[in-house]
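Provenance and format

Records in this collection were gathered into a single text stream. Each protein contributes a sequence line and a C-alpha cell line. The two records reproduced below are adjacent in the stream.
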Amino acid sequence: MNEFGKQFGFASLVCVGLLGCSGARVGDGEASKRKYLLERVDDVGIVQVYADGFTNLNLDQKRLVWHLYRAAVVGRDIYLRQRCEVGPEIRDLLEELLTHPDGVDPITLENVRHYALHFWVDNSPYNNITARKNVMAGSMEELAIAADVAEGRGARFPKAPGESVGGLVRRLGPWLFDPDFQPMVTVKTPEAGKDPLEASACTFYGDGVKLADFEGFTEEFGLNSTVVKDKQGHLHEQPWRLGDPRAGVPAGLYAKELGAVVDELTRALPFAPEATRRALEAQIRFYRTGLRADREAYDIAWVADKDSVVDTVNSFVEVYVDPRGVKGAWEGIVSYEDPKKAALIKGLAANAQWFENHMPYEERFRKPDVRGISARSIDVIVETGDAGPVSAIGINLPNDAAIRESHGSKSVSLANIVEANTQSSPPAARDEFCWDADESERAERWVALTNDLLTNMHEVIGHASGRQADDKPGDPAVYIKENYSALEEARADLVALWFMGDAKLKELGLLDDPAAASRAAYENYVRNGGLQQLRRMAHGDQLEEDHMRNRLMVVRWIQANSKAIEERERDGKHFLRVVDADAFREVAGKLLALVQRIKSTGDYAAAKELFDTYGVRFDPALRDEVIARYAKLDVPAYVGFVFPRLTALRDSTGAIVNVTISYPLSLETQMLEWSGRRAPPTN
C-alpha cells in the first residue's frame, strides 16, 4: 500500500518536513534558490524533483539505475491502457500535434497543450483525485482540422487501418469532448441500480461483466488479468504476461510492453548485487508466466533484498483503480537509499513488536511474532505508471497479506518527494483552516516533524500490523471487497494516530513532547480529512478515492462518537476544532479496534456500513465553501512531478562508461523525451 502524497496523505496541503538525502544534499538556503514549482495548469502544480545523491553512486550502480530507469519508462503504456482503453492513442495524438505545430491554429494548439498537461499528470483523461474526466476545450471539428494540418507537416498519428485522420479524431472525440461518455475511471459506489464494473471506464473487465458474476468464480490470475464474458455468459481470464515459448506459456495481454520491460530488466542483471539480481530474475519469470506462484516468488525475493543501495518496484501493484480492489495497476519506481534519514524509520521498525503488543485491539488479532520489516528512506529517480507523476510520500509493500505475515515487508519514505513538496508549498492553506493563532503556531512548530512520523508509522507499523482470525485466513480483500483498500488505509492511519501520543516516541528519541506534538498532528489530520480535501471534488457529492474516503470516515466517526472535535463557524466559514486531544486519542483507539476486527474477521457488512455512513457522502455546500476559500489562496490542489533526466554515455563499443543526471524543468519536455518525440540534450 502507499501513503498518497499523491497529495492526499498526511502531507496534504501543508508543509511537510524537509528530509535529508544521501550524498551532497543541498542546504536549505541553496534549496530555496532552486526552481521547484515550474508551472500551474488549473488546480495542478508541476514540480521538479531533485536527486543530489545520484552522483555519489559508483559506476555499476549507475548502470543498474539506467536500465531500471528505462524499464520504468518503456512500461508506461500498460497503465495508460488500464485507465482508458484508448489511452495510448490519445497520448500519441496529443504529442504528435505538439511536435508538429507549424500551421496549426494557435488557440487549438494551446487547448491541446493545456489538455496534454492534465493527461500527462493523470496518465489518462481522468483526474487522479476525483476519478472524473477532464474535457478538452474547443471542438472536435477544430481538433480534426489541426490534426489534418499536422499530418501534412509529417505527423504520424495512431490511425487504424484504412482510417483517416478525421476518422481518428471522431473515434477518440467522445473521450476528449463528451463529459457524459465514460465519465469516471473508477466508481465504487454507483447510482442506484448501476453496477460498479460497468460504470467504471478502467479496462480490467470486458463488456457485460458485473460484480455479481464473480460469485462462485475463482480467478487464477487475480492481480494480473482482464476478465471477460463469452457468448454463453461464462467468465474467462486474459492474463497479462509476456509468455514463455520454451515452457509452452502463450503470450497474453500487454506482451509487447512487457517484452520491452523485460529487455531492460535483463540488461540490468550484470550490474545488480546478488540479492537484487535474484529479485529481478524472479520478476522476469513472473512477467513471462503471469503465475501467482511466480509473483509470490518475486515478492519474497524483493523483500529479502534489504541492503542494496539501489532498488526498484516494477510490477502490477496497487489495486485502487479497480472498483473491486483486486486488479493491480502497473507501476515503475527506481530509487536509492538515503542513509542519513534511515535512523528514524529503522528505529520504528526495530521496535515493531513493542508497538504490536500495545495495539488497542484484541490480542487475538495481534501478531505474536512481527517479522522482517525493512524500513528505509529513499530518493526516487523516476516514478511512472500508477506511481507517477502524481507520487506517494511513503510505500509499504508487498500487499500480499500472507507474504507480509511470513516474510515481512519493506517500508520506505520518499525523501526527495517530500522535499520537493515542501519547497513548492506555501503555508497559507494551513493557516486559512486553523481556528486561531494558537492552532496555527502549533502547526508551525510541530506539523513538519509529525507528518514525517505519521507517514513512517503508517507505513512501518500500521500496514505491517495485525493478523487474520483463524477462521478467515488468506487475503482479507477477498472478504471486504470494494471497501478493503479504504479500510486498510484507515487502519494504518489510526495506528499512527494512536501511537503519536505515546511516551514510547520520546523514549525512542523521536519526539521530546508527545502530548504537544500529538495535538498538532490530530488538528492537522482533522483539518485535512474533514475540510481541506473536499476542494479536490469540484463535482458531485461522494468520494471514490480510497485515501479520501478513509480520512473522511475517521474524522466523522470520531466526531460522531466523542466530544473530541467541535464544528465551529465564524464569518461564514466552517472550522473543525480538536478540543480534547486525550479524548481524540482514546476514541481513535476504539475506532482502530473496530477496524481491525472488521479486517481480521472479514466482516463485509460492517465495512460497508462504516464507509456508507461516514466515508462516502459529503455536503456539496461545504465543498463549495472550501473551494471558494482556496480560490483566494491560489494554491494547487495536487502536484505532478517532473523527474530527473538520466543520460547514458557510451564508448565506441556501446558500453556505458558513465550516466549523468540533469533536470528537464518541464513536464512537456520530459514526456516528449520519454516517448522519443524530442531528443534530450547531449552532454
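Adjacent record:
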Amino acid sequence: MATEKTLFEDDPVSSPKDAPAPKRRQTADEMASKQREISVSEFFTKNRHLLGFDSPLKSLLTAVKEAVDNSLDACEEAGILPELLVEIQQVNEKHFRMIVEDNGPGIVKEQIGKIFGKLLYGSKFHKLSQSRGQQGIGISAAGMYGQLTTGKPVRVVSKTGPRKPALELYLGIDTAKNKPEIHSEQEIEWDKPHGTRIEIEMEAKHQKGVRSIDMYLKQTAIANPHLTLHYSSPNEEPITYERNVRVLPPETEEIKPHPHGVELGRLIAMLKNTESRSLSGFLQEEFCRVGPKVAKNIIDGAGAGLTPKSYPARIARDAADALHTAIQEAKISSPPTTCIAPIGEELILKGLRKEIDADFYVAATRPASVYRGNPFLIEAGIAYGKPGGTGLEFEEESGRIQKRKVKVDITQDLVGAGDEPARLLRFANRVPLQYQQSACAINKGIIGTNWKSYGLTQPRGSLPIAPMVIFVHIASVWVPFTSESKEAIANYDEILKEIKLALRECGRKLGIHIRKGKRIRREFDKRNHIEKYIPHIGIALQEILDLSNEDRDSTVETLEEVLHKSRKF
C-alpha cells in the first residue's frame, strides 16, 4: 500500500528527467544573516520620487522650493523682513547649480551639517504651530539628490552676526548612516551682516511654463507680500518682486495636542512617557483645553477603575482604551487659533493686485475650524480679468458707456483667456503647490462649487471657464499632505466644507460684478443701435414736418443728448 506524502515532501517521480537540479534551499539562519537595518537616507535614495525628485525638471523646482521655504521660516522666526536671492546657473547641458541666499539670522556651526546633511532632522515636526517646513526632510533631500546625480557636495555659507566671520562648508550625506560628511570648512569674507547661502549642483532641466520656477516664485510673492525676491536664470533678464507691505506675519504660539486629535496608540505612549504623577494632572498638562472639570468628566466617563489619582504609567491597555473612548465622547472646546497665522483678506488683495492685472478682486477669510484636533483656516481670493488677445472693455463714466480695445499678454500673466478654465493657485502655509492638482482637496472643492449660479460657465466635473485666477490657502499647524513631496492636500470632509464656504463667499461678490458687467454691455448694445438710427429718424422727421437742414441737425443733436443722459440702472 502506497504511503501518503505530506504537503511539503518532494516528489522526484513527477519531476521530468531533463529538469535542472533543484536549487539548494536556504536555511532560516542564512536568511536571517542577510537582514539589516535600512537607513532613512538609503530608503529615500532609492525612492526619491516620494520627495518630488522624480524628473530633472521637477527636481530643480523642488530643490528651490525647499530652500526658499527654509529661508522664509528662518527670517520670520527671527523677526526679519525677508529678502531672498534665487539664482539658477547652467553648468553644462545636463547640470544646473541652484543658489538660494537669504538675510536671515544664519545657522550656528554645530547645526549646519545636521540641517543640510541629515534626513528627518528639524525643530518643526513636534511643534504644533504653523510653519512651512514640517518633516525635516526637504533641504537635506535636495542635497542628497545633487550628490546622487553629480557626485558633488553642497556648499553652505552662514553668518550669524555683523561682527562674526562667515563660515563656508562643503558637505555631503552618508546615506548608509544618515549623517553628514563635512568635506571642508573655512572662514571667508562675506559682505552680508547675517544670512545663509546654499549652492547645490544637480542633474536638472530648466524651462518656463505653468509648473516652473518662474511661476512658483511669482506665486510665492503673491502669498508673501512682505517678501522682496530677486531671481535670475539662464538667458533671461533678472526679475525683482518687491514687497508692498513692511509687516511680518503675526507671530504664532505653540500649542499642546487637542484630546480629540489623539489616537489610542499615541495616548498609550503619552501615558508611559509623561512626568505627571496623576491622571488628572496628565490630562491637564499634556493637552490643551482641558481643565480640572473637563478632566474629572473624562475620568468619570472612562470608568475601568480609573480615578483622578491613578498613576499614568501604570494604566493598562484596556483602561487606556476606555479613557480614549471617554475623551472622544467628552465635550471639549476647540483648540486655540493663536498657533496659525492667516494671510488676511487685505494682504491677499494686495498680493493679487501686485502680481495679477485684472478687473475685479475679492478675498475672504473663514473662521478657524478643526480636523482631527488640528486647527486650520481657509482663505480664498479671486482675480477676475480680461480674456486673452484683443477684445473690448466697457465701463461707465458720467452716465456714458465708454468702450475701448484692450490687449492682454497671457504668457506673462496668471489670468488665462476667456475660453480657458480658470487658473488655480493652491497654497499651504503660504507655500505654492505646483503638482498633483487633480488629487488635491482644493481642486475638488472648486469643482464641487456651483459657479453657474455666479454667472460663469462650468462643464460638469471641471473648473469654471473664465478669465479668472482662484486663490485658495490653508493655514494649519499640520497640513495633511497626501505624500512626503507635499504637493496635494488630503480630502478631509472638514477641509472640503470650509473651502466651499470660502469660495461661495467670494463667488457671491463676483456674481454681482459679472451681472453688472452684463447689464452695462446690454445697455451699450441698445444705445449703439439707437445711435445708429438717430440720423435716419432726423431725415424722416424732416420729410414729415418739412424741416430745414438746420432744424433737422438740431433735432438729431437733441435726441443724442437725451440718449446719453438716460440711465436705466
